[in-house]
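Try this one yourself first.
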């Protein structure tokens, strides 16, 4: 479903997974949305404390599928095979291919 914010898609199953596993995994977000839109949705959904780092479109020089945003998430210590990118677009998938990272597509 599209939320009250134009173009923001929320996946209830993923939201519940993140809430249930915030203590089990390190979650970061890399989005092509603005910080304002991201912050609003995270607060509405009770996810505002679940992410270690959030990378928005204003934080990068190039949007996905360019892998530019991942350099802000990567801690330099974690092997790429320890990351899982969860996305919903061909741009998300393209970024993961450029990085050699596992990708899980969320779809309606």
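Now uncover the answer:
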């Amino acid at each position: 479903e599209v939320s009250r914010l134009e173009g923001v898609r929320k996946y209830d199953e993923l939201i519940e997974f993140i809430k249930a596993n915030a203590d089990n995994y390190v979650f970061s977000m890399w989005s092509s949305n603005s910080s304002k839109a991201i912050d609003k949705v995270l607060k509405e959904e009770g996810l505002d404390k679940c992410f270690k780092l959030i990378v928005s479109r204003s934080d990068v020089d190039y949007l996905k599928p360019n892998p530019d945003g991942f350099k802000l998430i990567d801690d330099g210590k974690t092997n790429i095979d320890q990351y899982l990118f969860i996305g919903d677009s061909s741009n998300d998938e393209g970024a993961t291919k450029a990085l050699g990272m596992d990708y899980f597509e969320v779809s309606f």
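Discussion: Residues 34 and 56 are 6 Å apart (CA to CA). The longest strand covers residues 51-55.
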